[in-house]
Amino acid sequence: MAKLLEIENLRTQFFTADGVVRAVDDVTYDVNEGETVALVGESGCGKSVSALSILRLIPWPPGRIVGGSIRFLGKDLLQLSDPEIRRVRGHQIAMVFQEPMTSLNPVLTIGLQLTETMQYHLGMSNEQAEKRAVELLRMVGIADGERRLQQYPHHFSGGMRQRVMIALALSCEPKLIIADEPTTALDVTIQAQILQLMKDLSNRMGVALMIITHNLGVVARYADRVNVMYAGKIVEEGTAEQIYHSPKHPYTIGLLASVPRMDQHRGRRLVPIEGQPPDLTKLDNGCAYRPRCRWAFDRCAQAIPPLEHVGDGQMSACFRKHELGDDVKAAS
Amino acid sequence: MATPQAVIDTSELDQLRIPLRTQLWRLVRKQPLGAAGAFIVIIMSLAAIFANVITSYNPVANDLASMLQSPEANHWMGTDEFGRDILTRVIYGARTALSIGLTAAFLGATGGLVLGVASAYFGGIFDLITQRIVDVLMAFPLIIMALAVVATLGPGAQNVIIAITIPFIPTCARVVRSSALAIREIPYVDAARALGFSHARIILRHMVPNVMAPYLIMLSTFVGQAILLEAVLSYLGMGVQDPTPAWGLMLKGGAEEFLESAPWVSIFPGLAISFAVFGFNLFGDAMRDVLDPKMRRD
Amino acid sequence: MYAYVVKRLFLMIPTLFGAALLVFFLMRLLPGDPCEIRMAGTGQYADPEAIAICQKDLGLDKPRIVQFGGFIGGYFTGDLGVSMWTHQPIAYEIGLRFKLSLQLAIMTTMVAVALALPLGIISAVKQDTWIDYAVRTFSIAGIAIPSFWLGIMIILGLLIVTQAWLGEGWMPPINYVSPFKDPWGNFTQLIWPAVATGYRYSAVATRMTRSAMLEVLREDYIRTARAKGLVEKLIINRHALKNALLPVVTLIAIEFAFLIGGLVVTEQVFNLNGLGKLFVDAVGNQDFTLVQQLVMLVVLIFVATNLVVDVLYAWLDPRIRYA
Amino acid sequence: MSAQIRESRDKSVGKGETLLEVRNLKKYFAVTEGVVRRRAIGNVKAVDGVSFTIARGEILGLVGESGCGKTTTGRCILQLETPTSGEIVFEGVNLEKLDQKAMVAWRQKIQVIFQDPYSSLNPRMKVGEILGEPMRVHRVEPNAAKRRQRIAELLTVCGLPAKFADRYPHEMSGGQRQRVGIARALCLNPDFIICDEAVSALDVSIQAQVINLLEDLREEFNLTYLFIAHDLSVVHHLCNRVAVMYLGRMVELAESDELFDNPMHPYTQALLSAVPVPDPTVEAQRSHQVPKGEVPSPINPPSGCVFHPRCPLAVDSCRAQVPEFRELKPGHWVACPRV
Amino acid sequence: EKGGILNFVVAGETPSYDAHRETTYAAVHPYAPFYSVLIRVNPKNPQSPTDIVCDLCKGKWKVADEGKTYTFKIRDDVKFHDGTPLTAKDIVATFNKIIFPPEGVPSARKTFFKMVESVSAPDDYTVVFKLKFPSGAFLPAVAAPYNYVYSKKDLDTHGYNWHTDHINGTGPFIFVQHQPGAFVEGKKNPNYHHKGQPYLDGFKAIIAKKMSVRIQAIRGNRAAIEFRGFPPKARDDLVAALGDKVTVQESDWNCVLIATPNHKRKPFDDARVRRALSLGMDRWGGSAYLSRIAIVKTVGGVVFPNHPLAANKQELQQLAGYWPDLEKSRAEAKKLLAEAGASNLTVDYNNRDVDQPYKVVSTWLIDQWTKIGVTTKQTVRPTPAFYATLRKSHEYDVSIDFNCQSIVNPIADVSKYLCGAGNNYSQCEDPKLGEMYDNLLRTGDVKGQRAIIRQYERRALDEQAHEIITLWWYKINPHRSYVKGWKIAPSHYLNQQLDNVWLDKKLM
Ligand SMILES: Nc1ncnc2c1ncn2[C@@H]1O[C@H](COP(=O)(O)OP(=O)(O)OP(=O)(O)O)[C@@H](O)[C@H]1O
Ligand SMILES: Nc1ncnc2c1ncn2[C@@H]1O[C@H](COP(=O)(O)OP(=O)(O)OP(=O)(O)O)[C@@H](O)[C@H]1O
Ligand SMILES: [Mg+2]
Ligand SMILES: [Mg+2]
């Protein structure tokens, strides 16, 4: 499969009065054409920032991409001029955000919000764009498109708005859709509808999908490959199978052990990860997970473990990645 | 059965307790305008408190020999038509402005706090009636109110304070009421109710302290407004009366009549008003940024 | 919507009545009455007989409650009464000055809006840069500088500048000319007071624009717009501005209602024969009836503006709908 | 604790004495519209005839989609809302019949933990005050020194260092605040705690800590929980029995294992299949039948069975008749005539 | 030179056009040009209080019956602006309205005409006033500038209130319009009875209540003149800024500021205390100083300083508080206060919220009093409250008060100091002073009058110090130099018909 997006050593930081927040710290990963990649991790670990960095949507001040490269179809997005990056945004890479309630402009009609992108990027006329918009709405399961285009977001329920957001993302037939927690704010049944819809559409149109989530279930159901993030770094990478069945990083192991599972026996006691996620302004020159890690030893404090292969495309950023196998079974 | 195994590691949270000096410095860096405002406010307060130490002139005594002198070594801001040193009167004017401003702001904001919280908490007919009264007071022209107060109670600083306070109360009551209404819906108030606390306790312990932010914001903006209002009223002849050194009063009469030949008479008191209000507004703005959760990023 | 407006109109009644009650009794609390002031001209003997005739003439000898009844009753007969000072119908007295005050209020608002929108937007867009600090300082100064003093300083500035350039001190025209008769003369007269009051007004509006804009710029839909690849100008103009304008429009309308009060001092400084000056004069003359009606006018403008603002809000914001 | 012990305990609870009984609870809200001046446009039937019992020592899970009335049910039990109709009987006493004094005593027996760890603690009070105030007001511990000791104990029990008594809520992380919220619920020695989404706002790793804590506390203090949640996995993990609500009505109620292994109501089935399991292999095998459409508005709920517009089994009669909530198997109640 | 429009500024606005019932000068400045009066102060010599000449009458009036009958011959060439010819009947109707108003019609100066028994017109061009007793106050009362002659026809057809908002006179100018709050406009009367006059095409009286606005109006040539008076500093500024484009006319002013002690309050019932307050003032020094900043200047007694009946400097210096030796005066004041047991006296002082000259002079006064150890608590009140305090509530120890008359008429004017006079607010009681005044009224010759007035003055200002005179006003009228023909009078009420004013186009 051809590489669509290659992120290398990406570093994004926020310069705040409380210090420098190293939100994304030396992150490297790829997305291949047509595949679905998931980015998981706890709140505040840098998932959204890494996604926003791709389209250079980090607000300055206080945030800034301080290093690395983001190659998309061979071009380094970080080197593009402002007009050039705008041609990528929404056109070749589209985003779907977490909050369907607030991601649409409340005072503009759905129609206008849908058509302006097409007019802008594809040079469509108003009529063409509207025709296409109706078609898009039908595709995401909203009937009666003509009437709907005249309406405002508050006429739509949360699930419907998220469908509109998906239609918006699809409108210019992008190569990649980044969905940042697209369903977290929605009800369980609606969540499933939306995710299914995204997955189906991306398959059908051959669009690569990057799903950002902290729901391990969602990842298991929809993702081909998974990147696990902790404290601004990718700590483990692999196929969904690998991550769930033979995790090679203590954090992944911890995560899996701490979620209650419906398919397993109720009697199991959860094994939480003790402690708190670290403060991203106070990262030291060691593994950030070490205070919470059962396997931590001296070396973890001395150097940051690099993300390295553990075989078969799986990668882990742990000094003891090869020793972990048995404990997993014990833990679950 | 064992109690929970691990006690959370709290070392990094302890770092939240930062020394006051560092916090202050951070505030200055985050809110440079606010710090500038605080600086002006402090200078003004010092001038007011130590007026008699700073200047040796008497603010009310006439000096026949030196009327309407332009600024020079002995009179940095010149003198007015009674030969009174303008700098001295500006400094003493700070006293008048501050005492009136602070008192009126405090009374207005506190009155509004009481009314607003009570109105929000009790609701119903009480709320309805207070809201109607608030409507009337807010729509009512200040100058009539001031005139009536000054004319019936007689002029003088304390009546100016009353005149200025009255319009503040409804303004603050509005703001506090809406915050209090919001706070009534917040879970910790529910928690307090679930714990079986009395109404009085819920209001005083759980609601009032949490409307302190709008209260303090109103308070700090009111000081500036009160200084401005005092100046306007005095200028219109409805405020403090001669020979009390008051900035608005200093802009009346001679200041305007001899504008071209003795501009210093009107320039300096006007600057004093502007700077004072400017300072308090900067300070109030910074206060709003710090206290208003909407503006706070976290 | 219609029902809502009607309901709101009814809700105005208690407010107006409260204001009427308040102003009536406040005025009656004042020592003295218009007759005594009238006979004060030369400090001569104030003939009690003349004063009594005058008081009888004005109905001041009647019990308060009757006077109040007459005041309120006038609204049902459509008769606002006559001024106790000039004996002219109050409607006429107010009508005479209304044009000027209205024009001044409109010019002031135009000055304010012309300053506030661009400044507020640029300051929000360039938040925490020197531009932002400059705009904020400028706007806070506008709130701090008393508008009457600014007026005085403008006059001083005009004198100094014209003296230096033209060799002769120039003052704005002293009599109101209709803008339709002599637009330039009208402009040269009113622009200065409009600037003096407009600065303060613009300062308030600038701050509001800035904070509304900042809030909007932090909203998710702005990020969405950016993610769509739109140019920044379009994002500001189409996506941000319309949302940010909502509170700004409200503020402008409400400040407009307060303007009548704000013009009181400015009209003094520039000797403009508007409602503000009429107000101060009426108060000075203890012209009870005129003061009462002027206060009622101010209160009415205030409550009416509030209603208009609400309706406007509903009209501008598609989220709000009244059945 | 081993799985066996848990299981045997599960069997024993629920058979014990009834602690709380809710009978045909209804709560309607008058809904208003308009931002500026509100006006009534109808009633939200937030809770529309809900009945259940909770036995001492058990954990009853209450699940359902957003807006289905879970929180409102809890608030009615807490007497934070006055029910429109229906009875709440606690330890055999009807709450409506209580006088002021008895009410205060009763308040101490039933406590609540809120979802949002940020807004459920008064930001102006130190943790020590938050915990001390109820004990002082209700004279549970009038002696200041003893009270301090008790606060320290409570904090330790909830997994926090005792020195946190001097902290303000904003000086703590979300998980820590939630622990304070739990400690507050415990400070009056209640019998019954309503956990309204008590873990939903927490991150996965922290969530597990709090779930474990809740389990342990139940053991230690013999507590009874009404556990409101929308995360089925958590409910499955924690609860003995589970009630499923939909649009203000209860659609299914059963023992936990029974409900998850053998869901009967079509809504419950859909709900379960919508929840993804964190295991790709399992997921690949599961059927993903997700209900179509969205949750209707509770202002104008559908006639008859409220679920019929989304129900794959719906027939004409569902439109007309409100289904009866019947016990199909011992302990397994369903509100659907088609199963 | 003929032609041109005169713009002038007026500080006030009259409530009605009917000067018979108004007391403000604002009923004079803009409206006097529309009317004629029977007799008036000579516009060519307004400084002289005794130079009274005919306006509507002809030649010299005849006094007969030992001063109890005055006969005026009326001009036959006068027409009202509406075309009606003027006859003696109009004048009779006018004075009947002023002197014997019907029930319910106010007349502000009715009391000035107490001596008049009747007014009649034996024929169309003769008017006869019959007096009850001869009085020196009669002619000045008739010559008062308020006595606009109305048309009998108007009074008969429209009633006595018609003139409050209508104007139909015989004056040099015809009313064009009045925009309330803004201006009054008049145009030339081509049929004016003083042939060749007026010189102006018209005038515009612009209302500007604030002194600064009026000064700036002249500074910026938006107006040419103001007729009331500017403070000296304003004069200096205008001269400095405009050079010879501005001309200044100055005059003593028939107004005086008086500090009135409240005799009903302790210790001001004690003449020693009142005297001390007077003694504490440096009037001569104050004159030099205040005349630079306020519209006061002249040191004087009860009579307008330039009048033959006024005390000369030597006589003045005999009075307490007018002594040439200030040190002695202040020492005496302190002594008196000590004697009266009022050494640490605090005065509750009632002041009016008007800068010129009330607040300026009071500020000076208060400062003066500190020099004899008297503290002053000043309350400045807006005009209505000030008068309510002065006249009704009497809640003050000392109040500022003033006396201001149009025609200089000492015999009438000094009645202000009479205890029990309607406009005396000191609440004093002094029958002896009353006797003196009665004496004065009955004395015909000037020398005798002068002697009695000196006694009266000594008693009122020194021995009893019922009232404490501060300084007499000083009228300063800087105006654009192109305004010609207008002469300053000792009163701002006088000489305002503007019929002999013209504009020098060369200087414009
Ligand atoms: N504008 C900002 N200013 C300062 N710090 C920021 C800003 N935006 C994000 N951060 C910090 O960057 C870090 C990563 O944030 P990010 O939003 O990427 O987290 P996330 O993984 O998406 O979390 P969540 O699951 O809560 O969305 C956080 O610690 C956050 O505090
Ligand atoms: N005070 C109130 N006034 C009006 N309507 C209310 C009120 N409280 C709740 N409702 C409505 O009642 C319904 C049930 O609300 P409730 O909060 O009980 O739902 P929930 O099941 O707890 O939902 P969630 O999962 O979102 O917390 C909702 O439609 C809600 O909008
Ligand atoms: Mg995120
Ligand atoms: Mg809820």
Please, what is the CATH homologous superfamily of the domain at 3-107 and 231-334 in chain D?
P-loop containing nucleotide triphosphate hydrolases
| Termini gap of chain D | 38 Å
Average pLDDT, all residues of chain E: 90
The rounded distance between the terminal residues' Cα atoms of chain E is: 12 Å
> Which parts of chain D are unreliable, with pLDDT below 50 for 5 consecutive residues or more?
1-9, 34-38
Structural class of chain D: alpha/beta
Spatial strand sequence of the major β-sheet of chain D = 6-7-8-3-9-10-12-11
- Helix fraction bin of chain E: 25-40%
Supply the helix-strand structural class of chain E: alpha+beta
With helices defined by DSSP (H or I, 4 residues minimum), what is the helix count of chain E?
Answer: 14
Which whole number gives the mean pLDDT of chain D?
83
Give the CATH level 1 class of the domain at 3-107 and 231-334 in chain D.
Alpha Beta
The low-pLDDT segments of chain E are: none
| Strands side by side in the biggest sheet of chain E | 13-17-12-16-14-15
Biggest interface pair, counts:
C-E, 53 and 57 residues
Tell me the major beta sheet of chain D: 8 strands, mixed
CATH topology of the domain at 3-107 and 231-334 in chain D: Rossmann fold
Which hetero ligands occur in this complex? adenosine-5'-triphosphate, magnesium ion
Number of E strands of chain E = 19
What is the name of the CATH architecture of the domain at 3-107 and 231-334 in chain D?
3-Layer(aba) Sandwich
Based on Cα principal axes, name the global outline of chain D.
Answer: globular
Please tell me about this protein's structure.
With 332 residues, chain A is α/β, with parallel strands linked by helices. Helix content of chain A is 34%, strand content 24%. Chain A has helices spanning 47-54, 82-88, 110-122, 126-139, 145-149, 158-170, 188-205, 216-222, 240-245, 250-258, 298-302, 325-331, and strands at residues 3-16, 19-32, 36-40, 63-72, 75-76, 93-96, 176-180, 208-213, 225-230, 233-239, 308-311, 314-316. In chain A, the strands form two sheets. An eight-stranded mixed beta sheet of chain A has the order 6-7-8-3-9-10-12-11, with helices on both faces. A four-stranded antiparallel beta sheet of chain A has the order 2-1-4-5. In chain A, a hairpin with a 2-residue loop joins strand 9 (225-230) and strand 10 (233-239). Mean pLDDT of chain B is 80; it is low at 1-16 and 293-298. In chain B, 69% of the residues lie in helices and 0% in strands. Chain B has 14 helices and no strands. With 298 residues, chain B is an all-alpha fold. With 323 residues, chain C is mostly helical. Chain C has two domains: 2-77, no CATH class; 92-151 and 178-316, MetI-like fold. Chain C contains twelve helices and no strands. Chain C is globular and about 85 Å long. Chain D is α/β, with parallel strands linked by helices and 339 residues long. An eight-stranded mixed beta sheet of chain D has the order 6-7-8-3-9-10-12-11, with helices on both faces. In chain D, strands 2-1-4-5 form a four-stranded antiparallel beta sheet. Chain D has a domain at 3-107 and 231-334: 3-Layer(aba) Sandwich (Rossmann fold), CATH 3.40.50.300. Helix content of chain D is 35%, strand content 24%. Residues 1-9 and 34-38 of chain D have low confidence and may be disordered. The longest helix of chain D is centred in the middle third of the chain and has 18 residues, at 204-221. Chains in contact: A-B, A-C, A-D, B-C, B-D, B-E, C-D, C-E. The interface between C and E is large, with 53 and 57 residues. The complex binds adenosine-5'-triphosphate (2 copies) and magnesium ion (MG) (2 copies). One adenosine-5'-triphosphate binds next to strand 1, strand 2 and helix 1 of chain A.
